[in-house]
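Blinded run. Sample ID left blank on purpose so nobody reads anything into the name before looking at the predicted structure. Input follows.
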Amino acid sequence: MENKIGVVPAKSDAVNVVKLKLGKIELWASSSLTGPYTASNFNIPVKPIHTFSESSLWLAMHKDTDPAVVSQLNNELKRMHQSGEIQQMINSYNHL
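Blinded prediction complete.
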């Protein structure tokens, strides 16, 4: 017997949270940040079961931005990662 998974498109994560709550779907593909955050807004506990892929997020700057501003932003972001502030923000959105 072959297991099949039906894919049901949705316009937003919020739509999928409602479908999950109503038992219309069993699994929901979302990002590791927006999924848990959206689910927590509906008081729906969720847990990750599979990672499809991982990618970095980038901040684009105008080509004429002062290099000192870019350097300051990069230094502050590095400091925030090292101090744990970034992880604290992620945890607060995911209610961990």
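Unblinding after everyone has recorded impressions. The two ends are 39 Å apart (CA to CA).
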